């Protein structure tokens, strides 16, 4: 028998959501314990700040430009590389339970197998996974939607309506404060909410395996991604009235506007509601109209959802232990991207390369039988490193197409690997002709973002932050002459490390 791999992801979880990263509200003892006994990565970044490109990087081990899923709505080809397929070929049993999102969700014609699978009564195989049971935030589609429709139809009406009558993201407010996409009337029993459903279906799949099996399961929670509609039975956990505003919330509208005016124009345009540069952001939501209490309520609902994820992880780990696998099971926890949650006076995500969206929680608890000491790694790592890490755990050499490296177990190994930088990219194209293109490098405590030529920028604009002096990234140093030499050096480093580009460019077929 070899080492088993439990890969756990949340969706849209901030890096500082967990206690082990300094979170002070959500109680996350299970994940904190994994960090204490394993390896916590303090500078993990995604390679894209929205779902589909980031998830395509996780499964392929390739940068966004290379695998080609350059924005939401671009489907990952069915014959794309897959770490699950590599593991399956080596004898591992493989499953993905929860949110996959390698293929567009808005798919009324059912062109994509992920969306047809539940309707057909099938569970794969697909993309190297022997078994898939899929869920997303909406209770109307995929296997989770079929479960509710067939077994608990009374629960369907309690969820927030994610799309409005125009089939676009809903901007309707709710909760106590009228916050966008906040909802306190979801009376689904907790055990039927998608967080617990994902955990229970993972346990059921594990129970289908022989005790001697080697396995890889990606347990992928849809939360805490908006809309924020946890079960009403759990709202007592965090009262928004008791919360401080987040440290990244600048305060007055005047202060917010002054900070955003010093950044490339799409920042201030988004805050004012002049231009939406991410399809998932409700077009009717204007961040400038968001009140401090609405920020508090969104944060409270998010903390509740994070607590439920932590408890669900604990149940699965207890079951792994009960099956006798605990000593030989590696656990890796992360997310696809972050969420503003009030930072800069904003919500949601988009072409904004700051810690709120780029920086990830990342914990690897190696199998106890490996005897690996606990550590905190300060060197930069990325999602492109996940797939090679899974293969290293399984004792499989990473194929040439993977562009990352196995995660280092400490900073000494990180130095030996030459880990100095981590790279993130963004591209989007909208129906009104708006395009945004960003390339970002983190190195030595600095973040530099080059705005490439597009409909909004000539290619001379950008952002530069000194995280030691300005951890909130409120002061853009791009035009500061005192940082000119450093900016030139970082931009040259960025250009030298751009990944290979897939040609021809694939086209989006949906908005998300």
Structural account:
This protein has 512 residues and is an alpha/beta fold. It has one domain (4-250, 291-420): 3-Layer(aba) Sandwich (Alkaline Phosphatase, subunit A). It is built from 14 helices and 17 strands. The protein has an eight-stranded mixed β-sheet with strand order 5-4-8-1-9-11-2-12, sandwiched between helices. It has a four-stranded antiparallel β-sheet with strand order 14-15-16-17, with helices on one face. It has a three-stranded mixed β-sheet with strand order 10-3-13. Helix 7 runs parallel beside helix 10.
CATH H-level homologous superfamily name: Alkaline Phosphatase, subunit A
Report on the biggest sheet.
Answer: 8 strands, mixed
Output the strand order for the largest sheet.
5-4-8-1-9-11-2-12
CATH topology (level 3) name: Alkaline Phosphatase, subunit A
Ends: how far apart? 40 Å
The CATH architecture name reads 3-Layer(aba) Sandwich
- The number of helices is 14
In round numbers, the mean pLDDT is 97
Shape: globular
Return the CATH class.
Alpha Beta
> Helix coverage percent of residues?
25-40%
Summarize the structure.
The protein is an alpha/beta fold and 512 residues long. It has helices spanning 29-37, 51-60, 64-67, 83-89, 113-120, 142-151, 194-207, 253-261, 265-272, 292-322, 355-358, 386-394, 411-416, 484-496, and strands spanning 4-11, 39-41, 44-45, 93-98, 131-134, 173-174, 179-180, 215-224, 329-335, 359-360, 363-365, 375-377, 381-382, 421-429, 435-443, 446-451, 462-466.
């Amino acid at each position: 028998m070899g080492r088993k791999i439990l890969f756990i992801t949340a969706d849209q979880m901030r890096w500082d959501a967990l206690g082990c990263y300094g979170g002070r509200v959500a109680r996350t003892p299970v994940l904190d314990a994994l960090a204490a006994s394993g390896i916590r990565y303090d500078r993990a970044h995604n390679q894209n700040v929205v779902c589909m490109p980031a998830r395509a990087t996780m499964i392929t081990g390739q940068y966004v430009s290379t695998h080609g899923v350059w924005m939401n709505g671009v489907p990952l080809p069915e014959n794309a590389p897959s770490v699950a397929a590599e593991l399956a070929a080596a004898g591992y049993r493989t499953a993905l339970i929860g949110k996959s999102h390698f293929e567009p969700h808005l798919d009324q014609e059912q062109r994509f197998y992920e969306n047809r699978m539940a309707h057909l009564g099938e569970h794969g195989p697909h993309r190297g996974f022997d078994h898939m049971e899929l869920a997303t935030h909406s209770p109307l589609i995929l296997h989770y939607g079929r479960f509710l429709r067939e077994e608990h139809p009374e629960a369907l009406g309690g969820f927030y309506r994610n799309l409005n009558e125009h089939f676009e993201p809903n901007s309707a407010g709710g909760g106590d404060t009228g916050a966008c996409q906040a909802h306190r009337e979801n009376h689904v029993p907790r055990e039927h909410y998608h967080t617990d459903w994902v955990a229970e279906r993972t346990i059921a799949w594990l129970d289908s395996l022989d005790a001697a099996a080697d396995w890889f399961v990606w347990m992928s929670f849809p939360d805490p991604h908006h809309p924020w509609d946890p079960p009403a039975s759990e709202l007592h956990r965090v009262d928004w009235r008791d919360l401080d505003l987040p440290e990244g919330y600048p305060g007055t509208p005047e202060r917010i506007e002054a900070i955003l005016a010093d950044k490339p124009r799409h920042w201030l345009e988004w805050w004012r509601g002049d231009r939406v540069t991410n399809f998932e952001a409700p077009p009717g939501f204007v961040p400038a109209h968001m009140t401090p209490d609405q920020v508090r309520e969104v944060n409270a609902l998010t903390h509740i959802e994070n607590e439920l994820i932590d408890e669900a992880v604990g149940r699965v780990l207890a079951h792994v232990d009960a099956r006798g696998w605990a000593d030989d099971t590696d656990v890796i926890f992360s997310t696809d991207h972050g969420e503003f949650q009030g930072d800069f006076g904003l919500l949601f995500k988009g072409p904004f390369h700051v810690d709120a969206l780029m920086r990830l929680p990342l914990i690897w608890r190696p199998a106890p039988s490996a005897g690996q000491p606990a550590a905190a790694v300060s060197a930069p790592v990325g999602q492109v490193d996940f797939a090679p890490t899974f293969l290293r755990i399984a004792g499989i050499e990473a194929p040439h197409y993977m562009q990352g490296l196995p995660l280092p177990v400490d900073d000494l190994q990180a130095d030996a690997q030459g880990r100095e930088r981590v790279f993130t990219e963004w591209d989007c194209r909208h129906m009104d002709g708006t395009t945004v293109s960003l390339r970002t490098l983190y190195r030595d405590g600095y973040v530099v973002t080059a705005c490439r030529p597009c409909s909004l920028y000539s290619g001379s604009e950008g952002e530069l932050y000194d995280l030691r002096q300005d951890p909130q990234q409120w002061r853009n140093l791009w035009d500061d002459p005192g940082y000119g030499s450093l900016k030139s050096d970082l931009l040259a480093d960025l250009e030298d490390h751009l990944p290979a580009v897939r040609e021809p460019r694939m086209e989006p077929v949906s908005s998300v």
